[in-house]
Design goal:
Elements lengths: L1 E6 L4 E8 L2 E9 L11 H22 L10 E7 L3 H18 L2 E6 H7 L12 E6 L4 E6 L5 E6 L5 H11 L7 H9 L23 H12 L4 H26 L4 E5 L6 H13 L3 E3 L11 H13 L19 E2 L6
Parallel strand pairs: 1-4, 4-5, 6-9, 9-10
Antiparallel strand pairs: 1-2, 2-3, 6-7, 7-8, 8-11
Helix pairs in contact: 1-2, 3-9, 4-6, 4-7, 5-7, 7-8
Bound molecules: 5'-O-[(R)-(carboxyoxy)(hydroxy)phosphoryl]adenosine and zinc ion.
The site of zinc ion has 5 residues, from helix 3.
Length: 337
């Protein structure tokens, strides 16, 4: 089953060609023009997807030795959540391609797709599992009873962790999006030199709050704190909160596995802390490589493959629309019911 998956929910244009859950080819184009504006400009992001997407698809088809879309069985695209204009580009392209080729289309939920990067691999997830999804737009904990039953335990009450990383990086002159740059700066700093509060520290509370932390970082910066020390303290505070709450839930659920997903999982200290804490508890950790932590189309393709394994006839209607937000208690890879 050949799947052509498209992801355009924010500022990364990504395409993947899969055979079931296995990647044949994949490409990600990260837009550069937003940094001078200090954040993603939605219209620029949409226009960039429009310009870049057809070329990425052609590249992939050529690399896979295919001269048309005829060899594709199913077209899948992220339907939401994300920036509506950006989503509409990938979604509309995918639906039009499916219609023109006379093939099926599947609309995919972006949040579920982040977790589904771990689906269908040689090393299989054992359930129940505790999952952390932490990106630029979301910070949530889930209980996974199976791939079909992913239940929300709690989320951030304000900013997402990635958003807090990006705003603190911007504040300290590390550019935008600066999560990765702050991670590098933190390696040269001493967290002990900068004291930040730990918001909502109770590990048993499966919720987060990062906006106060961001403000505390701003006050320290304005008071003359060293950039690297501030970065190190900020990173350690966020990582401690994410890991302690995830481990608490893993123990409470008597989890057999721990899943991590989303752009912030590229953070070096977070990866190290997750490895250490899971090893100490003999929990099997599923950590995506850095390229598949941030937005990519392979995760969208695997989510589509999972839907098709359960129901080989599955398809979304061509009226499937983009959605900006997800609010629910049960996460499904199906983006267009
Ligand atoms: O999953 P993703 O690519 O997009 C969303 O769905 O939001 O996540 C992007 C987020 C950004 O906030 C970015 O700064 C953050 O992931 N990020 C990092 C690192 N690499 C990316 N945050 C902390 N440390 C990193 N190394
Ligand atoms: Zn994402």
């Amino acid at each position: 089953m050949r799947i052509l998956a498209v992801e355009t929910s924010c500022d990364d244009t990504a395409v993947a060609l899969l055979d079931g859950c296995s990647a044949i080819e994949e490409r990600v184009f990260t837009q550069q023009g937003h940094s001078k504006h200090g954040g993603v400009v939605p219209e620029l992001a949409s226009r960039s997807h429009m310009r870049i997407l057809p070329g990425l698809v052609s590249d992939i088809l050529i690399a896979a030795g295919m001269d048309s879309l005829e060899g594709i069985d199913v077209f899948a695209a992220t339907a939401g959540p994300g920036l509506t204009g950006s989503l509409l580009v990938g979604l509309t392209w995918s639906k039009a391609a499916a219609w023109a080729a006379g093939k099926r289309f599947l609309g995919i939920n972006h949040l579920a797709a982040h977790l589904y990067i771990h689906y269908g691999q040689k090393r299989q997830v054992a359930f129940p599992a505790a999952a952390l999804l932490v990106s630029g737009g979301h910070t949530s904990l889930f209980r996974m009873n199976s791939w079909q039953e992913i239940l929300l335990l709690g989320s951030t009450r304000d900013d997402a962790a990635g958003e807090a990383f990006d705003k603190t990086a911007k504040l300290t002159g590390l550019g935008y999006p600066g999560g990765a740059a702050l991670d590098v700066a933190a390696d040269s700093g001493n967290p002990e030199n900068c004291s930040l509060p730990s918001p909502m520290p109770d590990p048993s509370l499966p919720e987060f709050s990062f906006s106060g932390l961001k403000t505390a970082a701003k006050l320290l910066w304005e008071g003359g704190a060293d950039r690297n020390d501030l970065a190190a303290s900020f990173r350690r505070t966020v990582v401690d909160l994410l890991v302690s709450k995830l481990m608490y839930q893993a123990e409470k659920l008597e989890a057999k596995s721990v899943l991590a997903a989303g752009g912030v999982i590229a953070n070096s200290l977070l990866r190290k802390a997750l490895r250490q804490e899971c090893a100490a508890r003999k929990l099997e950790l599923f950590l995506p490589d850095k390229e598949h932590s941030t937005d990519n189309a392979l995760m969208v393709g695997r989510a589509a493959a999972a839907i098709l394994e359960r129901n080989p006839e599955a398809s979304s209607p061509l009226s499937c629309n983009a959605f900006a937000r997800w609010s629910g208690s049960r996460l499904s890879p199906v983006g267009c019911p």
